[in-house]
Amino acid sequence: MEAFQWQQARSPAEAAALVTQTTAEAMLTLQGTPSAQQAILVKAGGVDMLDLMKEGLVNPRRLVDISRLAELQGISREGDDSLRIGALTTLAQIAAHPGLRQSHAALAQAAAMAASPQIRNRATLGGNLLQRPRCWYLRSAAHHCLRKGGGHCFAFAGDNRYHAIFANHGCAIVHPSTPATALLAFHAQVELLHPQGQRRQVPLEDFFVLPEADMHRENILAAGEILTAVWLPPQIQTNRSIYLQVAEREAFDWPLAAVAVVVDLDAAGLCQRASIVLGAVAPAPWRARQAEALLTGATINGKTAEAAGEAALAGATPLAQNAYKLPLLATLVRRAVLAAAALPQDPRAS
Amino acid sequence: MFPGARAFPEGELTLMKEDPQENEKSAAASVLGPGAVPIVLRVNGETHPLLVEPRTTLAEALRGSLGLTGTKIACNQGACSACSVWLDDLVVASCSILAIEVGERRITTIEGLAAGGRLHPVQEAFIAHDAVQCGFCTPGLVMSCAALLAGNPHPGEAEIQTAISGHLCRCGTYPHVVQAILALADAKGD
Amino acid sequence: MDDEFPRRREKFPFGLAHLGLDEVEREIPADEPPPLAPNAALTQIGKDIRRWDAWAKVTGAARYTVDVHLPGMLHAAVLRSPLPHARIRSLDLSPAASAPGVHAALTVVEPPADGVPTVLRYVGQPVAALAADTPALAEAALRLIQVEYEPLPFVVDLDGARRPDAPIVYPDSEWQKSPSAGLPAAAGDLPITGNIRGPESKGSRGDIGAGFAAAEIVVDGTYHTQVQTHCCLEPHAIVAAWHEGGLDVWMSTQFTAGVRAQLARHFQLPLSRVRVRAEAVGGGFGSKSQIGIYGRTAVALSRLAKVPIRLVYRRDEEQMDSGNRPSSEQHLRIGARRDGTLTALSLHSYGSAGIAFGAGVGNMATALYRCPHVESRQYDVFTHAGPACPMRGPGNTQGAFALEQGIDELAGKLAMDPLALRDVIDPSPVRREERRMGAERIGWTQRKPPGADQGPVKRGMGMAQSLWSANIQTNAACELRLWRDGRVEVLSSVQDIGTGVGTVLAQVVAEELGLQPEDIHVRIGDTEFPSGPPSYGSRTTASITPPARTAAWQIKEALFRSVASAWQVDPQRLTVQDGWIHLRDEPQQRISWREAAAALRTDRISAFAGRSDDYAGFRSRSGDAAMALNDLGGVQFAEVAVDTETGVIRVERVVAVQDCGRPINPLQIESQVQGGVLMGVSYALLEERILDTNTGWMLNPNLVDYKLTGAWDTPQIEVVLLENYQGFSATDAYGIAEPANIATAAAIANAVYNAIGVRMRSLPMTPAKVLHALGAVSGGPR
Ligand SMILES: Cc1cc2nc3c(=O)[nH]c(=O)nc-3n(C[C@H](O)[C@H](O)[C@H](O)COP(=O)(O)OP(=O)(O)OC[C@H]3O[C@@H](n4cnc5c(N)ncnc54)[C@H](O)[C@@H]3O)c2cc1C
Ligand code: SF4
Ligand code: FES
Ligand code: FES
Q: In which domain of life is the source organism classified (chain A) (predicted)?
């Protein structure tokens, strides 16, 4: 790791004023070696930041540490019953929060499944949403790929077993955040503080950026902008949610595919609204709109759940090595829909 | 089905306490490094002034400057938890934290676990159940298990497995680790 | 044999303890102790004694090489090839050598000179190294080394390397300079065509054509196994201190004495001037057997800088350049008669050990079962990848995956129970008993036909066998010291890499001396002591415990003589128990161990013993290594649950029935076996070194994407241990570390077949591969 300066920000506004680039910008180079140590970057828990710096993928001149800022901590309930999760809330705090575990089960479950206890104790929600993707070419200083400003993507002709099957044109990263999958299913918004002092709230869906729009970033965070909180709109009492993932390891592993499902069932058991978001299969958490449409107004049962699983695959363009994600997703969606509606997992299973 | 969605407990604001003095101090501090910076680490109940570059990880500071080599570095990337220490009451991977950001928080390392020469019960149990082979992952595992028991004296098997889910042990001590902690959990039963 | 030495005849317990013991008569050297009783009659041996170094390890006090800090020590860093195949046009160290804080720099490869080019053959190959005041300065200075590389065409995959137009790894006979990866290093004169070297055909016999002609049933399959890396938690590490008087080295090694010999040879120093220490070693699994290029580099830097040098690998260096288990592609054909007897077995295997050779996997197929006609053709395929080296059960672990699935498949075709088939074809009475015990423990009778479960999650049960030779290091010795204050020390250079050999030594000595294991001071891992065996080849316990017992017995005899002369009795009348020496026939005539020691003529007496030959001789020997007459068996059973909709395999339970001669510490053995099984589960389901075919780089050179089993992936592991007495040595103990690893992946694969009715012939058995095998995926590669 290169040497750098250290500065503890005294307020989010100060951090915003100090920070000169986003981490994604600082990782862009023409030659492949981040040379000029220009950037002043912001660090929260530092889990991803240190990882990138150890590999030499980013060499900031200075780190501005926001990890001790009180304003950015904590989970609170706001006037209109929405929830505000401070950007520095750790994944461990989210996973263990009794209120969240009830009202937003899928989010607590997703947070609990991400990484290890040690990392969850440090990883902040803001940092988690803003971490760089895990594409192994991106993470290797030896591969100067498109997303780092290079000339081509190594994944297409290389090993793409873990890559995206949706929106994977040009670059096939999958979004690394496990909680994001659940957050999107709850229609979360992020609150951003601009260096000039303006705050804006952006729906998570609009926050993420697909490769077709911009290959060099995963989100619209502007240089100097600080993510201050994540907002969860008020939930309807009847909603039920679940997060499911499949990984190669039972625990402490990145998912091969994941899904978060939120459904509102009316008294008659009809599905009023369904939100189905796929994880680890696209450059951003991926809404399965056709599946959502299919369930809306329908009774949830084995048949409709299965149809939703099939519909979730619409538009997939798997690469040479990752077509296996299709049956995986179909299964996950079917199971998650049934589980969210609290129906037996699979009629054939018993 | 989800009554909690309405009855969301009030006052769950887990804000850190505002400390005006703390703010004063950091105002003075401003930009540090990139060269060595004086810091103070509170480790195992002792206060250690030391000089570290901002890039020094906590694991490096413990092992290097303080000579506390019981904390091991195996992946240097958060992937194996061999470097686990306690930051106040939380188990963290010391390879993924900078020494400079620890501040006033208490660090407990494996060297600080055996109080006054008497082994911690987890250490005793590891020995009794042969939950040690090459031993390189062991200090980290001991720290995780001790933290688990501090918060939950009677963990079940799944809780133990979750508590150690971040650890890699190439020698394969997991079964004996779980057995050791289960025995402790039972023994503690009153 | 040592004919000039007097010998005597003794009767030894013989057979499997739980079935009742016989006796066997052996001729043994006169200076070795009388036969040891079976474990049931002993007080320390065969008991779950606490690990000798557990206290140090649970408190963090144990000192590993990475913890060694010497005054004035510098930190080394290695410049590595960024290209899988390249010629070095020019190499200039000087800008780095004169950088701030740098005190020594050298080239690791021969620098290009007078038209002799320097060729690099894998990403990560060491090019140069330097030493600086801090690790950060050293890493920074590496960037100042000027190297001009000329990229050459390369190939890193097995298929690509076998194509006629493949880039060639070694022109001419240059491969002979390459390291060996495996078992009986098949270094000899084998033909080489392109990148393919071989076949090596050891174990072939009979007429394979006639064998298949005589077959009534034939099974045929192609199996793939991946490259696995050792992933020792402690990385490769050395601290080398060159000084006026010679060389002091601390090293994370499996063989202190071997490293000393290699260093002495390489640096032309007398053996007596080289000291190698390994106080605690954080795992080895085969990868820390040699001094290696990195070890020599650190020593050379120390000689240059005249100060101690520390070289510790980062995890990525560890993954790319510290050895690995070679891959294999095995074409297995087995012919049998309807009664199960094998008529023919042919195994053609291509494996890549990268730039090394020795990827053969033929041992299992040629030796495990009775078969008159066997054809083994083992080919090494060179690729531009980091060199392999031995890894836990080298060759056999890969071989078992194919062979044991082939036999399972054959049983299916014969409509025989896999156990019954093995009763027909496996000559080993020990494994027969192991099959019986394992079947009983796992509940084999509950086993259903393949794919019988309804519903998406299907359970299955399978088993597989292992074979490993019982190895001995004949150059293995220890010293026993008795001090006047009663302290007993056992000294040997043998190192404890986590196997618990220190505990075992204390037990053996304590048993002989009538003391407690904690009374025995174990001083090992230092070549200042008599040369001990390596911790590889499952030979440590087998090699070092007999001399330890012999030396203890000799010390006891000496002390008895001293006491006997004071008491004016025949020393033969003395015995020792619970720390008291007394007359056999008059127990009240006694003296404590301490008092007896206090009466010694000198401050310290000492006995030295080396490993004698096995009492019944060896099957073979070469250099310091020998093979005992017996083999080590091992049969493992696995129960799995396969989610056919996600492809996830969950190993729920493994029953491992193992033998290691006389078990000395069942608890430690259980730990070892659990470790072997877990490494096998990991190999079966998760691990894979992934090289990018377009750049030659390892894509997962870490512990994030290179996946090892964690606590949640751990099945319930039940270890059943046989006591197998043969009267072969003073302790009759053999090894277990490798046999415990060999059968696991095959047993899991057979269980998966039993669950889903589809054979998984490629490792690791990931969800993706399972879904493909089940036909759930349309398109895409295997
Ligand atoms: C071994 C391992 C396994 C993992 N497994 C998982 C997993 O399964 N699922 C998962 O989701 N994650 C996983 N992670 C990733 C981990 O969760 C993230 O690295 C972590 O959440 C990042 O949070 P942080 O607070 O440490 O962020 P930092 O490292 O501090 O920052 C990350 C990035 O966000 C920026 N940033 C941080 N906070 C703000 C803010 N408030 N405003 C503006 N910019 C900001 C930083 O500049 C930086 O670019 C894993 C990590 C490791 C090492
Ligand atoms: S998938 Fe994206 S990040 Fe990965 S190599 Fe291609 S361009 Fe780079
Ligand atoms: S060394 Fe810190 S997690 Fe592996
Ligand atoms: S005991 Fe060796 S890695 Fe855990």
A: Bacteria
